[in-house]
């Protein structure tokens, strides 16, 4: 897992795995406000989801992980925090969606590391070993959110 600020990406990219640099660079150069909702094909099995939805209380959210994709997430508008735990701590999978590479877990909320996503600034990279509980409302009250998720195929 990696959390960064897109405004200092240029000085940080030397620390990232080479295969992720072009994707985060594209995100840094893009006008994310202009992104249209939906799924957008990026070629070679990679794609971008621009989601419009609502945050929820963290207790209502399961943690998820993926086997075939790396997630690069960034909030366009709204407020969100993402809970993180390594998969070795999250217990058994409680829901499986292999057709969409989604695996859900229900670890203790108290063990989440909370990542506050600053709109248009914070980006988070989740590798296959990283459990992430997205769309958590920072104040526990459901509110609208708009975010982008780059899905980078690794297998």
From TrEMBL:
Q: Name one GO cellular component term.
A: cytosol
- Stretch forming the signal peptide: none
SUPFAM superfamilies listed in its UniProt record: Clavaminate synthase-like
Q: Name one Pfam family in it.
A: DUF386
Protein name listed in UniProt: YhcH/YjgK/YiaL family protein
């Amino acid at each position: 897992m990696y959390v960064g600020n897109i405004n200092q990406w240029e000085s940080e990219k030397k620390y990232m795995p080479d295969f992720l640099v072009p994707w985060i660079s594209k995100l840094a150069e893009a006008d994310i406000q202009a992104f249209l909702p939906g799924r957008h094909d990026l070629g070679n099995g990679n794609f971008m989801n621009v989601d419009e939805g609502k945050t929820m209380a963290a207790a209502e959210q399961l943690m998820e992980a993926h086997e075939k994709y790396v997630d690069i997430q960034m909030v366009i508008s709204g407020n969100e925090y993402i809970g993180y735990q390594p998969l070795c701590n999250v217990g058994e999978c409680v829901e499986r969606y292999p057709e969409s590479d989604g695996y859900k877990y229900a670890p203790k909320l108290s063990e989440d590391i909370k990542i506050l996503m600053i709109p248009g600034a914070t980006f988070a990279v989740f590798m296959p070993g990283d459990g992430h509980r997205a769309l958590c409302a920072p104040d526990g009250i459901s509110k609208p959110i708009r975010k982008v998720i780059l899905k980078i195929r690794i297998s």
